Structures are given as C-alpha cells and as structure tokens.
Amino acid sequence: MKYMANKKQKNKTPDNDKDRKYNKNTKNEKNDGKGKNGKDDGNTQTAGKEKTGKPSDSGNTGNGSPKKKIDWNCVVRESGKKVFLLGLSEVLIYMAHPLPDIGWLAWIGLIPALIATEGIGFKRGLLWGWAFSLSVFLSTGTWFLIFGWEPWLGGNIYWSFFWALFFGVWGWITTLYPAGSWQRLVISPLMWVFLEWVKSQGPIGYDWAIMGLTQHDFPALMQVSSLAGVYGVSFILVLINILIAETILFCKTGSHAFIPDEEGKNRLQEKPPTTATASATTEGNRLQEKPPTTATATATEEGNRLQEKPPTTATATEEGNRTLESPPTTVSTTSSATATPSTTVSTTFGGGWIGLLKSIFDKDSPNPQLRNGWALTLILLPALLLWGQFSIPVTDYQDEESGKGVRIGVVQPNIPQDKKWDSDYFQPTLDMLEEGTQKLSRSGSQLVIWPETAIPDINPLRKRKITNYIKKVVEENNVYLLTGVITWDKKHEEMYNSVVLVKPDGEIDKPPYNKNLLVPFAEYLPLPESFRKYAIFDRTSSYVPGKEHKVFDSPYGKFSVLICFESMFCRLARQNVKDGAQFLIAITNDAWFERTNMAKIHFIMSQFRAVENRVWMIQCANTGISGVVDPWGRITHQTPMWEKLEFQKSIYIRDCGHTLYTMLGDWLPIGGGLFGILFLLYNIVILKKKGIKELKRNSRSKEGLKPFATVSTGTQFRLAIKYSVNINQG
User: Is the CB of residue 612 less than 8 Å from the CB of residue 633?
Assistant: First the structure.
C-alpha cells in the first residue's frame, strides 16, 4: 500500500481522476494512463481497459487515447449496400428522363438514394451524393458530348454538385431529427427545388435534368406549373419520394417495438428506458443505447477487487474514440437512424411491417409527424390533381370561345449541320425556305416562321441581294415572316444571334431581338483567357448576348421569341409574357444535337413554358422537333426529326390575365431556399449555443467539462446541436 501511495504521489497532476487506481504492472500504467511525458494527461477514461483492469484488444496510442480499430468487412459491406442503392436510384432517374422517358419512375427514383445517405452526416452525404448525381448527369447529358468530352465531363461535374449539396444537407438533417419529423419532410424538398433553381443561374447555368420535366405526359400535374413553375412539380415528386423513404426507415428501425402482450396480440408498446450512450461513429454520429455501468474494475495490489463507481449516464465518442462526459442526469437522446416509437398504441395491429404501416395512420400513431405529413399530402395532392384536370378545357378550340384565331405556318428545312454553312449549299437552302413559304401562303398562313439562323450568312440584312430576296418572298406571298439571322454591330464589332420580323411590304421591324442567354462552350466561351488556348474550343463561336427583351407587334397579336437555348429558362419566358406577349415562339437549330435525346427534352421545355404562362407556344426547328403546344401543355401538332416539311396550325389569343407564376415568378425555389437556409443557420448558431449552455449548466464539476473542451470543434458542434434538439423534443 505504501508503494501505491508513493506511486500515486509521484504521478499526481491537477487533472487526475480521484478514483483512479493503478496496477503494479508499470507497463499497463504507462500504456493506459500516461502520455508521452510519462504523466497522466487527464483526458483518458477507462475505455482503454476492460473491467478487470486489463488492456483492451484495441490497443492504445502514445497519448493515452485508444487506437481506432477498423472492421474492414463491415466497411466493405456497408459501402456495398450504398453503392447498390445509389446505383438503383441512378437507373430509375435515368429511365424517368427522356429517353427512355418512363415518367412514373420519378415518383420512386430517389428513394434508394435517400435511404443510402440517411444519417451519414454532411461530408459523407456530399461525397456519396456527388457520386450518385454525377452518374445521373453523365448518363442523361450524353448530348453534351457534341462539344467534346472535356466540356461534357467538366460541365456535369459542376452541375451535379448542386444535387450533391442536397444529399449533404439531407445526410446532416437526418442526424439531428427523427424519421418523419417536419424538418425532414419540409426542408428537404424545399432545398431540392432551391438547388435546382441555383443550377440554372450564372454564366454556365443549365435548366435541364429537372425532376419536374419527367411529368410532361401527366397533364393534370403539369398544371401546377402555372402556380409555381416546373419547380412546383419537382417539389411534389421529391416530397413523395421522401415520404415513402421516411416510412420505410420508420418501419425498418421501429419493427422491434412490437411485443406480444398478455393476450398474445402484437401491440406497439413503449420501450423500457435505457441510459443513452451517444456514440459519434463514422456513420454520422449515430446514438447507440447501452445499459448503465454500475461497477468499474479497478486493479489493486491486493487482488483486483471490484470497486463501485457511480454510473456514467452518457458518453459521446467521436471517430478518434475521444470521450465526452455528459451531465449526470440521464438524457434521452434519440438519433434519426435509431428512433423508436415511444407511445403505446391502444389499437391492436398485426405484427411486422404491416402492423407498423397501420400504426402510422392511427390516431395514437407512434410517429404523429409522419402521419400528419401523409395526411396533408393525401389531401392536398388529389385536390391539386383534380383542380389541374378540371382546369383543362375538354372542348375543341373555337374563335368565339378562345378569342381571335391566328394561322401559323412553320418551315422545317432539315439542313444537316455539316452542310448548313457550306457555300455550295447556300442557294439550295434559300430555295427550300421559299418553297415552303409559298405552300403555307397558299393554305392561308398569316405568319410564317423560319428556324434559327435560317439564312446561312453573316449579317445578311446588310447585303442588298439577300434583303431583296426576302422582300420578294413576303410581297409575293403576303405574309409576315419571322426568321433567325446573324447580325453584326460594326461600331462595337459585336456579333449577335438574332431574329427579325419582316412585314408583307418588305419593311423590317427594328431593332431585331438579340439572344439574351447564350449556350456556354458553343456560342460563347466562359473565361476565354483560360480556355481559348485549348484546341478543343476552337470551334466555339464568339457571340455577344443581347441586353433587352422584345415584344413583337403584329395585326395578329403580340408575341416574343425564345432562341434555342432560351426556352430552357422559365424566367425569360415569364418576363416576356409579363411584358405583354400573348403567345411565344421558339426557333432553334437542333441539328447540333444530332440523334441524342436533347431535341426531345427541348420540346418538353416548350410544353412547360406554355403551361407556366397559359399561352400558346410554337416551336420551329431546323431538323425537328417542331410543333405547337396549347396553354395547358397539350401538343396539338408535332413533327418527326430529320424530315423536310412544313405545316400550318391555328392558335387563339387568350386574354384571361396572368398566372400566379407569371406574376410572382420563382417564388417557390427562392422563398423555400431562404427558409431552408435560415433554418440551417438556426441549427448552426442558436441550437449549438443552447446545447453548449445546457451541457455546461448540467455539469456538476469542472473536471466534467474538460473532455468537452478538448474534443474537436466539429464534434462540439454536432454534440451541442444534437443535445439541443433532444431537449426541444422533450
């Protein structure tokens, strides 16, 4: 005993645990309780020892912290599950988009990915989500290979980042809130549509691969676009995916709560309380329940007798197996991944998953927030679909019902891209355009449309021969002619992709409309100083974007034009209609896309622009798809690809006011994004501060706080927020 007293006196430091006993085995003392300098570092617990005082199998590091032992079999198994689930989601989402265009798969396509990334934290959610998103974008964006594999890969890495951010946020929120909570059900779809909207902004923004576009064959659901744009449809799809995923997660983690009662029936019963041990594992700080330790083994020289120690109510270990002593008061901490029903359901259910599914919708549901989420969705979604279906007229269009009819003629010349700028093909191109215009004029067309850059020449309106030719065509056929041309500003030495309206008397309506939104890496090169030196970008044009919108005026109504890429963007079509356009026209040269799926996607976007603003939409493409879409998204005419043809179709001017979307614009993604960001900031700032305050307030000794101060800032952040969330949830 004298030896032990001397030994303890020799190693005594201000931070030593008063109850710590040392074994005569000095090797174990050095490994288990001392740092590099031979002194006890004050931050070690009995975690490195077994209850008999022997060293654990995990081994110890030189600074007194137990070594982390990785179970590689478990890592490979869990990673394999995630790869399988994410791969399944990638296939489903790919098949939901054109082509193959199986739209109903979008209602379930995200479920495996949501389950795979649930509860794994922000960083791991971001990385796994990026891998999933990149595979989706690479497979659905094969059309971008026309610009080379470098832009295809680089662009998709950038665009997939926004989906990856969603999975990072999802992976983090699900570590804080239990399955079915309103925070997960509301914040997650709001952040999805916000990030879809952000992806379309900036110099290389693209508005394709939006979830809502997959529902172009579902007219009743498409009508939601008139309220919130295509993002409203995306919101509904993601919400349904999350609801189903949350239900599966609840059933998966709550199935053990069914216990046979005295009558032998399976009732959902309350689980006996246990002392929580918060284990911050690499899977995202999941909490693991452990029974209270009532005795710790302290080796003494008299025979390794067990000495009683007060039970530790909660310890939180991070990836490095650091320990955090929580307040002695037992804290009920329930993670998202291990949430179990906590109330007794009076109704008798069947066992297993069926019983859990029934319990969700019971009035005494163990997860009332999930039940309420389903209830609201099952009420509001059918109501929206019924409203959408009944808002679509069932009768044919008639002048007396819909207003003044306009006969529109469309010429699809089908000029291959490799011949379009061939000087030998210049005159044949003009002949085809003139021939199509004559046919349409004889059938009564009032406005004839030629595609984007229909006249293959630079600044043709400055050349007398071409202007005389255009004047002859309109005068002989007595039609208004809308055509795409390339214009040149000599003063500023700037080239524009433009469209002009030529009146029947040969007068050209000035100024022309210059394309506002240019295709990156095709019509212009972002950061030319950095990219122009690479040969792959030699064929990139040097157009300059226009700065103003334009509404053309004619005896047949006011209209605006979207040139090619511009029909992708909701905001531009909306602004034109808000400025007074009564119908919209899209002109394009989709020969660029060759035989990829982009021509189909391009036409689908015209469908949504029509519904969002309740106007007619006419598309004229060089090689197809050309067509006409009514204000409810129904296709009244559609041409095949790679055929030379012309067609005429009547549209009707409607004066019924603006839609909610036309008036308010992207209120859902912007408003939802702001709400989501404020919510995340609340978690980061307010809950962290509150959690730290509560941890300190409930600590009984100064020594009890020291481990919390020594763990990393990131660990403090997660533990404090989790602690605060649990307090709020009672």
Answer: no
